[in-house]
Design brief:
Elements: E1 3-8, H1 13-28, E2 35-41, H2 47-61, H3 67-76, E3 77-81, H4 87-95, E4 100-105, H5 112-122, E5 129-132, H6 140-153, E6 159-161, H7 169-179, E7 193-201, H8 210-235, H9 246-257, E8 258-259, H10 264-267, E9 268-274, E10 276-278, E11 281-283, E12 301-308, E13 318-323, E14 331-337, E15 354-359, E16 362-371, E17 379-386, H11 395-404, H12 414-432, E18 438-442
Parallel strand pairs: 1-2, 1-4, 2-3, 4-5, 5-6, 7-13, 9-18
Antiparallel strand pairs: 7-14, 8-12, 9-12, 10-11, 12-13, 14-15, 15-16, 16-17
Bound molecules: 6-O-phosphono-beta-D-glucopyranose.
């Protein structure tokens, strides 16, 4: 069956920076097979003008790919100018497709709802799919309405909510590590695990994304989706299978069990960066960046601690944190085990065993205590490391390959999207009411109050 990928937001930042480069890689590896490609945006371009734009984006973001492969992709692109919230424009665009459409909403989340409504007015043929980016709405009420609108358009199985973090090598390897080994699962519970930290500190600042980011903030941009997905994968019960919604339903069950911080003032940290230096680059105050409205009080650092109220995890704190313009790009899930019950040969309290699932660069590190090299009854810390095998494709490439190949294992379900909003909602509300102070941290520092 021939299919057509229709990218709404076809000349936008996401398309130019992530989707087209990934499509070019799929073209190079022969994985793009029989798929039509159509961009739709407001920009008044014809096919040739769009191809010129795409050529420039590919040179900037996939320059390592040989030019011939990039050109093959460019040659396949077609374009139709239009307003994605107008059903007449969408009908005209869909008339240009020559296969069953996969409509990708590479759009700001504020436009999802009117776009889905406009698509519903046009109607989509049997077998069509809709792909929705993150953040999935603005809050729980909005996500519910968006889900209802999507379900009026297509059945849930035909909706692919994207979270590209699920396609990162270490993240996918949570499945391999947990469920393809005997070793970890018996100790993967509150009896043996003391705490879990899910950290995604970026050295990048705003990078010219004020139009989107200043209305989102770190909580909506990262924590509500990517970090809660990491939590869900790390803590969920073993799925029977990953296909046919098996993975999504286990993650949804886990998210249902997550209890947001009871005392948001004590259980969350909200921060915004001021001027400073990161990796030798001078960054201005976030509040002074072009397009930022300081009165919005948008956070660039978000942290909160949740518990998972189920048999396996009751009582174990899971701390989630993310920040922009941080001194170190530390991106990892850290599982800290409880101390041993008895140590037969030293009074020294050994450090806990620690398993680190590192997201960039990808790696898995297990920190253990072993006998010392000098006095054998002293302890020494040793680290076993492994690099999870990942293919040549970036995360978006893998998402697109799965999507175009008809596999929906990596899609986020309606329940997951709504549960994730339920979890962050009390924090969003307390922050919006200024019940938690907006702390400042210098760009290049370790974050508000120099938290470890
Ligand atoms: C995106 C966020 O979803 O993820 C960005 O909008 C963030 O703010 C990015 O920088 C991080 O993902 P990656 O794959 O680029 O490390």
């Amino acid at each position: 069956m021939r299919r057509s990928l229709v990218i709404l937001g076809g000349s936008g930042d996401l398309t130019g920076r992530l989707l087209l480069p990934s499509l070019a890689r799929l073209e190079a590896s022969g994985d793009l097979a029989d798929v039509g490609l159509l961009g739709v945006s407001r920009e008044d371009l014809d096919d040739d003008g769009y191809r010129d734009w795409a050529r420039r984006r590919l040179a900037a973001h996939a320059g390592d790919l040989d030019e011939e492969a990039r050109e093959r992709l460019v040659g396949r692109l077609r374009y139709r100018p239009g307003d994605v919230t107008s059903s007449a424009d969408l009908r005209a665009a869909l008339d240009r497709t020559d296969g069953v459409p996969i409509v990708y909403l590479a759009l700001p989340n504020t436009v999802f709802r009117p776009t889905v409504d406009a698509l519903a007015a046009v109607g989509l043929p049997e077998g069509a799919q809709v792909v929705v980016e993150k953040p999935f709405g603005r809050d729980l009420a909005d996500a519910r309405e968006l889900n209802a609108a999507l379900h009026r358009l297509l059945p849930e199985e035909s909706v692919f909510r994207v979270d590209h973090f699920l396609a990162k090598p270490t993240v996918l390897n949570v499945l391999g590590l947990r469920f393809a080994n005997r070793l970890f699962e018996p100790v993967w519970n509150a009896a043996h695990v003391e705490r879990v930290d899910i950290v995604f500190d970026e050295t990048l600042g705003l990078e010219g994304r004020a139009g989107y980011y200043d209305r989102a903030g770190a909580l909506r941009d990262m924590l509500q989706n990517h970090l809660l997905q990491l939590l869900a994968l790390v803590a969920m019960e073993p799925p029977l299978t990953v296909t046919g919604g098996g993975l999504a339903s286990r993650k949804a069950d886990l998210l249902r069990a997550v209890r947001p911080p009871v005392d948001v003032r004590a259980g969350s940290v909200r921060g915004r960066y001021t001027a400073g230096e990161v990796d030798g680059r001078r960054l201005p105050d976030y509040a002074g960046e072009e397009g930022v409205d300081p009165a919005r009080g948008t956070e660039t650092y978000a942290e909160f601690t949740v518990t998972v109220e189920n048999w396996r995890w009751a009582g174990v704190p899971f701390r989630l944190r993310t920040g922009k313009a941080m001194g170190t790009g530390r991106k990892e899930v850290v599982v800290r085990f409880r101390p041993v019950p008895h140590l037969p040969f030293t009074d020294e309290e050994p450090a806990p065993d620690v398993l680190r699932l590192q997201l960039s660069p990808d790696g898995i590190a297990l920190e253990l205590n072993l006998n010392g090299s000098g006095d054998p009854f002293d302890l020494e810390r040793e680290v076993l490391t492994a690099t999870p095998p990942g293919g040549d494709l970036p995360a978006y490439g893998l998402v697109l390959r799965e999507l175009l190949g008809g596999d929906t294992s990596l899609a986020i379900s309606d329940v997951e999207a709504e549960e994730s909003w339920r979890i962050v909602e009390p924090v969003l509300a307390a922050w919006a009411a200024d019940e938690v102070p907006l702390l400042e941290y210098a760009a290049g520092s370790a974050g508000p109050e120099a938290r470890p």
